[in-house]
Design a protein that fits this description.
This protein is an alpha+beta fold. It has five helices and eight strands; from the N terminus they run H-H-E-E-H-H-H-E-E-E-E-E-E. Strands 3-8-4-5-6-7 form a six-stranded antiparallel sheet, with no helix packed on it. The chain has a two-stranded antiparallel ribbon with strand order 1-2. Strand 5 and strand 6 form a beta hairpin.
């Protein structure tokens, strides 16, 4: 229905945001108009979210196969056979499935890292169903990957490492989190991540608004994942691309 071909992760995510915006509008602030347009006496109708943030109830595309994945067909037929709230929830769930289908249709030629980033961007937003049902919760603090809020995970001394034998961490410069980063330097995206191995760092957790001391004991260049140990003995597999682009990794003491 639309001549638009996003070509990179950011463009696909923007398209997702706009379509999602249109669907949420249809099911919330303009729900009376949406309800009226879904006349059960009409032919099979679909709810479309458009890339300009608008929405429309229309017949499905005639071409086979369609230019884009199609949303749920015949939503109007169930309108009068269900409680209004239940029917809207059903439409919302199908709308979420359609949004994902369109996003990953555009992202079919992305590599696994681009697909992973796209999913994190999408997953950082509440679903249409969550917004409609009131289950969406506002996440505070900085974000990584376009909105996904990071929370500190205390996994225990044996947790997070998957049973692997890791090099022993250096002594920690501090055992308590701080509200501002200590003297050091914020690790830049262009730097070599392998230089982080053996470093004492501070990691910013937006939900807590605190910088947590940690040691990076091992780094995977290919996966861009670091094995992190905290002073309390808990361990974590940290995706470096979740923290470095946002300036959430402060190098306090290098390994050298």
């Amino acid at each position: 229905m639309e001549a638009l071909t996003p070509r990179n992760v950011d463009e696909v995510f923007h398209d997702y945001e706009q379509r999602r915006k249109g669907l949420i509008t249809a099911l919330t602030s303009e729900v009376d108009r949406f309800y009226a347009e879904c006349d059960p006496d009409k032919e099979n109708l679909c709810l479309y979210g458009n890339h300009d943030g608008s929405w429309e109830v229309a017949l499905p595309a005639e071409e086979v196969p369609p230019e884009l994945p199609e949303p749920a067909l015949g939503i109007n037929f169930a309108r009068d056979g269900m409680q209004k709230k239940d029917w809207l929830s059903l439409v919302a769930v199908h709308s979420d499935a359609w949004l994902m289908a369109v996003a990953f249709y555009f992202g079919a030629k992305f590599d696994k890292y681009e697909r992973d980033r796209l999913f994190k961007l999408v997953n950082g937003l509440p679903t249409v169903y969550e917004v409609l049902s009131g289950k969406a919760t506002k996440k505070k603090g900085g974000t990584s990957g376009g909105g996904e809020s990071r929370k500190r995970k205390a996994e225990g001394a044996a947790g997070g490492g998957g049973g692997e034998s890791l090099p022993p961490p250096p002594s920690f410069h501090s055992s308590e989190p701080v509200s501002k980063p200590s003297d050091g330097r914020i690790f830049a995206p262009k730097e070599n991540i392998m230089t982080l191995q053996g470093c004492q760092v501070e990691l910013f957790w937006p939900d807590d608004e605190l910088w947590y001391p940690a040691a990076i004991v091992q780094v995977s260049q290919r996966g861009r994942i670091a094995d992190v140990v905290y002073p309390d003995g808990s361990k974590e597999k940290l995706e470096l691309d979740d923290v470095i682009p946002d300036g959430h990794l402060n190098v306090v003491k290098s390994s050298a």
